[in-house]
Fold this protein.
Amino acid sequence: MNMKADIINPFLEATISVLKTMAHVDPVPGKAYIKQGSASKGDVSGIVGITGDTEGSLSITFSGGCILHIVGQMFGEKLDMINDEIKDAVGELTNMISGDSRRRLEEIGYHFLGAVPTVISGPGHEVRHITKGPILSIPFETPGGHFVVEVCFK
Amino acid sequence: MNMKADIINPFLEATISVLKTMAHVDPVPGKAYIKQGSASKGDVSGIVGITGDTEGSLSITFSGGCILHIVGQMFGEKLDMINDEIKDAVGELTNMISGDSRRRLEEIGYHFLGAVPTVISGPGHEVRHITKGPILSIPFETPGGHFVVEVCFK
C-alpha cells in the first residue's frame, strides 16, 4: 500500500471528528509527513493492530498534559493524574479513531479490520512501529499539549 | 472465544520454541493464569494485534535485564544498554512468537491473522489490554530476569 495523500485524510478527519464529538476538543493538525524508521515519545499511548488489504498498526501518543486535558473535557472535570480511568478512556478513543478511520477508508475502497487496542503508560516511553516501510505521522496540538497519530502499513 | 486450556499451550510452546531457536535461551514458564482488567509492567514490550475468528491482542513484556540477556544471546555478545538494535530484535521476536502461536492455533482449528508489531520502550512502562474479557497471562523466568506473555480476545 502506498502512503498516498488520499489515505492521510481518513486518519486526520477521524481523529478530529472523534475528539470533537467525545471531548469537545478541537485538535489543530500540523503538517503530516512520512518518516522512515524513527519513533515517537509520549506519556500515554493507544495502539491498535490493523489487518485486511494489508497489515499495519496505528498509534496515538499523548503528552501527559494533553491527555489530562482531553479526558478532563470528556468527563467534565479537571484531572491532574494519569489514573486507570484515563487509560481506559484512551483505549476507547483509540478504538473509535481506528473504527472511524477504517469506515472512511472503506468509502475510498480500502478494507481493513481492527484488533483489540492496548494502552501504554509511563513517562517518556517510546513507540516504534516495526516495519521496513514508511510511517505516516500526523502531529496535533491541543490547549493541554501535543499528541501524534502514527500509521504504518506493510 | 473461551480462554480454554487448549489455547494456552500454543502461546506457551511458541514462546519457548522461538527463544530456544533464535537465542538459545530456555525460558522457564511459571503458572499461566487468567486475570481480569489488570496490567503488566516492564522496560521493553512487543505488541501485536490479532484478527480472524475474533479480535485480540498479544503482548510480551520484558524486564531490562531479561531482554539484554536474550538479545545478547541472539547476537552472541554481552549487551548492557537498550538500544535500537534491541528494540528491532524485540519486534522480530514478537512477530515470530505471534506467527508460531497462530500456526499452532491453526492446527487445533482456530484461524487468526497478525498485524504489524509495535515495540514500546521506557523504564517501568505499563501495558494494558483494553477488553472487558479475560486476559491470559504466562510468566517466564530466564537467567537475565523475567518476562510475561499476555493474550486477550474479545
